[in-house]
What we know:
By secondary structure, the protein is an alpha/beta fold. It folds into 2 domains: 6-149, Carbamoyl-phosphate synthase small subunit, N-terminal domain (Glucose Oxidase, domain 1, 3-Layer(bba) Sandwich), CATH 3.50.30; 159-371, Rossmann fold, CATH 3.40.50. It has helices at 41-45, 100-106, 117-127, 140-149, 159-162, 189-197, 211-216, 235-244, 255-263, 358-371, and strands at residues 6-11, 16-21, 27-35, 53-57, 61-62, 81-83, 86-87, 110-113, 130-135, 168-170, 178-183, 200-205, 221-224, 250-253, 267-284, 290-302, 311-313, 316-324, 330-335, 340-343. Strands 10, 11, 12, 13, 14, 15, 16, 17, 18, 19 and 20 form an 11-stranded mixed β-sheet that branches. Strands 1-2-8-6-4-3-9 form a 7-stranded mixed barrel.
Amino acid sequence: MRRHAKGVLVLADGTTFSGTSVGAPGRAVGEVVFNTSMTGYQEIVTDPSYARQIVALTSPHIGNYGVAEADEQAARTFASGLVTRSMTVRPSNWRAEGSLPGWLEARGLVALTDVDTRRLTRHIRTHGAMPGVIATDGTEAELCEMAAAAPPMEGLNLATTVTTSRPYVVEPKGPLRGTVVAIDLGIKRRIVEELAERGLATRVVPAGTGAAEILDLEPDGVFVSNGPGDPEPLTDVVATLRSLLGTRPLFGICLGHQVLGLALGARTFKLPFGHHGGNHPVQRMVDGAVQITAQNHGFAVHVAGAIPDGFESEFGRVDITHINLNDNTVEGLSCTDAAAFSVQYHPEAAPGPNDAKHLFDNFAEAVIAGRS
Length: 372
């Protein structure tokens, strides 16, 4: 591991945070967001949903349990950079295969520690998520200019930059109970594993795959994954879902929830600083039960006056099934007439709580029932 050097994070508004480099040298540009998870740093930076984002972890002590290949959610890192208050260089855990600083450097990820992440988080909460540059060289004026020139997240079609380049199949664990096509907008490994553990063979296809091609595969169900960026530029994906609605059971999460909302006639909007972390309370409307959920998104579904009454779509009644108790945003949709439902959060967690894993059971039951 290289000798640590000074580093800096400069936001587009000129605010500067000094720190110590613990990853690869260089510069990285991205939208700066904070994540409130206490664990799961490896899963976070390998989650494709974090493409073009610099993640600041609010938990003050990071890296104590090291890294393990089994925790990675993709074959590479997708976050632009990582910012922490304190990072351990000597992990202590029986699963550890190395240290977090060494892992970051080996994967070429620019990262800082010794940063005042409390001040940074308060700044983002007050002024909103904004572009920034994390760097080990350059003047503050130069870096501020780079950050100010970075495009905002609104209007960015990032899903097509992280999707798989070719289809692939993940076989079920145990007897085959059904087949699913998963539209990859930035899918995590743990999601596919959840489907496989329920006996579903999953064919993962690129984001641009059309409805006719998907139906030619004769799936028993369709899954729409998480992913990065703004949902509204994904007009091809929205058109695909509109053609698929009512033909097969359909389940979407995170970005998949947003594009399903667009397909059903809703709109989306940019949140001030997004929902990022493993401790977001979500209420289930049918019975008032509260689940603690893992979330990572900067946009949300909006329909004027829809909470709690839902709305009518050309595909039938759409119910609001879940709301976020922090800001009352829509966290779940269900269109019974089209056998489609979605949630804004991550029921597979990785990292985070497992309160919502039963949603994969619900989807598997719908898929299996459709085969009979």
